[in-house]
Design goal:
Length: about 90
Amino acid sequence: MIFFLQHLEASHLHNVKSVLELVLEIRKRPLQKMNLLSIAMKLKLSESQKAVLAGVGLIAFKNLKSSDALSIHASELVVKLAQLYEPGTGDI
C-alpha cells in the first residue's frame, strides 16, 4: 500500500502498490467528493479552496453529494495533496 492514500479514506485504493496501479485505478474509478473532504479537513481548506480543487464553482461544489465522482484531473490533485500531507515522504 502507498501509505499517503490512507488520508483519502478510499477503500478501493488500499491494495494499490505502485504509482502506475494508482493512475489506472483512478482512471477506472475516480475519487469522490468525500475523499476530497477527508484530506481537506486535515489541511483546513476553505469551501472555496475545496471547490477550486474539485474544478467546479462554489455553488456547484456545495450541491455535489458526497458520493459524487470527481473528474480524473481533480482526483489526481487530491492524491497529490494527500502525498504532500504525509509527513516525511519525498517520493512514493
